[in-house]
Amino acid sequence: MFRSSTFLVLLLVSSVPSSHAACAPVCRGTGVVDGSRVPDPNNCHYYYICLQNGADLEPSPVSFPCEEGTDFDALTRTCKDPSSPGFMCDKSCFNCNYYCSEKDIIADPWDCGTYYYCTEGLPSQGLPCPAEKPYFDGDACQTDAGKCCSCISYCSAADRNRLVADVFDCTSYYYCNKVGPVEPFFHSTCPAGNFDYIYQRCSETYPCFEQCSEGRTRK
């Protein structure tokens, strides 16, 4: 079990956990053609552009932000004031939070069976899910391992325009272009050594702390 203070420090100096958990954008539906915009299922402020690839439509490799003060409306596929009548953005796709500034109940970055309650901005001692519902999905303990919040390379608000570690590979890292699960397009590998999150660089003297293994991520 983490002590509360230790857990908080780990969150601040480490990338929070697997891009496997990120919901993928979809270029399907009525009226979706080459050049259409579709929602970023992980962040309401962003959208993807559908691009023709042979007979298929595929989302752009990166998402694009709406103008300041607007979010992407899934119905009209345009950036709009989120307070507009009929505005729709489904935020249920990625429901994991790891910081008390984001939610009152947060996931453990590395253990799917543990969660924390936040009081006055600080996490509690880790609370275990019961054996009959062993997996925490961001809101509650349940039975579907595919909804785990653990082992996800994640960009917090403080990580914008910075680098976070690849939780499956000490030698790799991601650039954070937005809050939420990392985008594979921004993945890089150190030419030598391991990635040092604190100093934001590759280092041949920085030790490897293996946070996750492929068997611990949800598919």
Automatic annotation (TrEMBL):
This is Peritrophin-44-like protein. Residues 1-21 form the signal peptide. InterPro entries: Chitin-bd_dom, Chitin-bd_dom_sf. The keyword Signal applies. The keyword Signal applies. Keywords: Signal. SUPFAM superfamilies: Invertebrate chitin-binding proteins (SSF57625). Gene3D superfamilies: Chitin binding domain. GO terms for cellular component: extracellular region. Residues 24-91 form the Chitin-binding type-2 domain. GO terms for molecular function: chitin binding. It comes from the Eukaryota.
